[in-house]
Amino acid sequence: MRRLLVAVLVVLSGACASTPPLVGEPAPTLDDPKAEAAYRTVLDRYSARDEIYDGFDTRIFTGATLLTPAFREARVRRQGLFQVLPAAKVESLLADELSEAARFHEFFLGVHVNDYRYDDFAQKRSIWRLALVTPSGEVTPVEVRRVGRADLNLRAYYPYTSVFWVGYRVRFPTTFANGQPVIPPGTEHVMLRVASTLGQAELKVSAR
């Protein structure tokens, strides 16, 4: 009887875990501990995670990062260190990133869905509704593009993903139809809402 009770407790503790099981190699890190810690600080500032459950059954684990100019710069400079890029190439990549940041409010969205049928975020008839929620209201994406499986290269920049996760690029407009900014100056936080009949996840991140 005691063995049965222990087995039940082990099963329940696993079912209640707030993160998916760690599978495969750990995400690559920089050799310089200070550079690695600095990147993680910026990543954490603009990232959030949430989960959707049905009782003890996991529907989805998700994480998202708002690609602010500050985060884009940190990611490009991290790429430069990993790939040993010339300074001129780093600055060229950074200029491209900042140009994109001026055109869209963009998120990297990572998802771990237990049932592959629900991994349809980029489909026109997706069961999921994505929305960027700010103090001024909310907008839906102008583009959702599937980046692909979270391989080691992707995980080097978004280490909260893991094997069996899938990455997406989600772009929102910067202004409403009336021309007002979606994220007003001085906004502290914004939220990416991921919702469907399976439930909803709310990922609140810094906007500054």
Descriptive key words:
5 helices; disordered N terminus; four-stranded antiparallel β-sheet; five-stranded antiparallel β-sheet; 9 strands; alpha+beta
Give me the secondary-structure topology.
Layout: H1 2-15, H2 33-45, E1 47-54, E2 57-66, H3 69-83, H4 87-103, E3 105-113, E4 129-134, E5 137-139, E6 143-149, H5 152-157, E7 166-172, E8 189-196, E9 199-206
Antiparallel strand pairs: 1-2, 2-3, 3-7, 4-5, 4-8, 6-7, 8-9
Helix pairs in contact: 2-3, 3-4
Question: What does the model show?
Answer:
- With 208 residues, the protein is α+β, with helices and mostly antiparallel strands.
- A hairpin with a 2-residue loop joins β1 and β2.
- α2 packs antiparallel against α3 and α3 packs antiparallel against α4.
- It is globular and about 50 Å long.
- The chain has one domain.
- Helix content is 31%, strand content 32%.
- The chain is built from five helices and nine strands, in the order ααββααββββαβββ.
- The strands form two sheets. A five-stranded antiparallel sheet has the order 1-2-3-7-6.
- The N terminus is likely disordered.
